[in-house]
Write a structure and sequence with these properties.
It contains two helices and 13 strands; from the N terminus they run βββββββββββββαα. With about 210 residues, it is mainly beta. Strands 1, 4, 7, 8, 9, 10 and 13 form a seven-stranded mixed beta sheet that branches. A four-stranded antiparallel beta sheet has the order 2-3-6-11, with no helix packed on it. Strands 5-12 form a two-stranded antiparallel sheet. Strand 9 and strand 10 form a beta hairpin.
């Protein structure tokens, strides 16, 4: 990494809270007769946040400094679901509101247990999540680091830095993740295999419970 001297970064923002979700309706196969069962709409949603106590007290960042302690997801799903998260870092000139995403910052060193990073930049959680679960990404925190030794961090001198995390949930059953997230066995082998196993196991579990 090129030498980095007397360069201060203003930390502007950490996270915009995000609500995520969608629902499905289930109907009787015999649409001409009244169903004998009640079918409740399923919702898949949750909240994404970084607590104030998790934000670093460093007001001016230099390479290697921690931005925050990680991203926490609170799951409020009515069905077992699959989760993925993407963390992007933006920068802008002081006084400007026009931010540019940067691709040469390596913000996460240790994803944490059960996370895999995809080629699309998303971190995929390789366990099913359900209502009441609390899941954390970045066990050791999110940092202001260059992606490799060739990154000239001086280009961020005096800039404002903004970190934005976005999470998505989909139902675990019926392999919805593959189409919704564009995953397949050829390009995303390990991630696809793990998520497909969760999907299949959930369908088997539901079938045995009927």
């Amino acid at each position: 990494m090129k030498r980095f001297r007397k360069v201060l970064i203003v930390l502007l923002a950490i996270l915009v809270p995000v609500s995520i979700g969608f629902g499905f309706n289930f109907f009787s196969k015999n649409m001409e007769a009244e169903s004998k069962k009640q079918y409740q709409t399923m919702t898949v949603d949750g909240t994404l946040k970084i607590n104030e106590k998790d934000i670093t007290n460093v007001q001016n960042l230099v390479p290697g400094d921690k931005i925050c302690d990680g991203v926490t997801m609170n799951i409020t799903s009515s069905a077992v679901s699959l989760l993925r998260v993407k963390v992007d870092i933006y920068y802008a000139e002081v006084g400007s509101t026009e931010y540019t995403v940067t691709t040469d910052i390596a913000s996460i060193k240790n994803y944490g247990n059960n996370w895999l990073k995809g080629s699309d930049g998303y971190y995929y959680y390789t366990q099913g999540v359900k209502n009441g679960d609390i899941v954390k990404l970045a066990e050791d925190g999110i940092y202001f680091n260059g992606l490799n030794d060739n990154v000239d961090m001086n280009k961020y001198q005096g800039k404002k830095i903004k970190l934005v995390a976005n999470a998505e949930l989909v139902q675990a059953k019926h392999g919805v993740f593959a189409k919704k997230w564009g995953l397949n066995q050829d390009n995303d082998g390990n991630i696809y295999t793990k998520l497909k196993q969760i999907s299949d196991d959930q369908e088997k579990s539901d079938a045995q419970g009927q």
